[in-house]
Write the structure tokens for this entry.
Amino acid sequence: MTDTASSAPVRPAKDVLYQRIATEEAFAPPEMLEIYRKILAKGDVDPGFEGLMGFYMSSPSERAQHIMRCLTDLDQIRLGHMDEAGIDRQVIALTSPGVQVMDTATAVSFSRLANDQLAEAVRRHPTRFTGMIAVAPQDPTAAAKEIERGVNQLGMNSVIINSHTQGEYLSDPKFWDIFAAAEAMGTPIYLHPNSLPRNMIQSFQDCGLDGAIYGFGVETGLHAMRIITAGVFDRFPKLQMIIGHMGEALPFWSYRLDYMHQATVRSKRYDSIKPILKKPSDYLRENFFITSSGVAWEQAIRFTQEVVGVDRVLYAMDYPYQYAVDEVVAMDKMLMSADDKKKFFQTNAEAVFKIPPRPETRRRAP
Ligand code: MN
């Protein structure tokens, strides 16, 4: 990669004492975009999907075209950007909304194809890529089987779900076979944003705030709260989930969530808010990992480390949607102990995604 600008290009230091593992990175098989084109060509398209992928797939803007090129590449373009940004490894997932916007049969069969493609890319670049298992929540039994296949046959150790599935939430017990499989297989579920569902989008879209700027975080935070308050972690205490964007602001909300959850339970005002064993913030600390995707902001990262613990906060970039080399440089400079910074960039991700340490790390071991 060359840079013809007169000022020296910003480059992350190579001599840092940790590897940088980015944990919320996206890809899109060209075959998925073909399915999306067919969905977009039909009448009555979901407004959130039309506004998000409809835009990226048809916009002539340089940013949109660049993102589409990067999304579909699992080789030299991606590796070049990783080298330029000092990213040792990407943990890669099928981009939002993945298969969740498809009809059930297509979603089930395409999730397998996408997982096979990603596993193939990981085999080509085993020291640079780690894959997440895509599943179709539309068919929870098939999703549970795909989690098992992903672990046992493809060597993947985490699951991607892009928030709601056509307006339905994983707090509904009909989806809980997915949680049972994830808990049994020890695979954390990354709850990634989706565009807002039909019954929520209008008041966000009216003012242009439905996307990554605000709506995504509100909706994904709501989804995580629905899972907590529905008692999912009382039923599946070992289940682990991952949420990006500094926990979709939930760490900052923790005090009020705890206070008002207790008050709401006591009021008996809602059938859906029943007593659960712990405070909402306890589940955040015990059942969630939080990544910094899209939020290269030291104060928020350190605050979240204080709230949920340094073992539960991980680095993510959100490639290719937010590819910013200067953010890596800024985060290298965070005021943080060397141990905690290594946890943030490297070792927490190795533990969560079961990534084997690289040879040079092993050589240092006694
Ligand atoms: Mn993302």
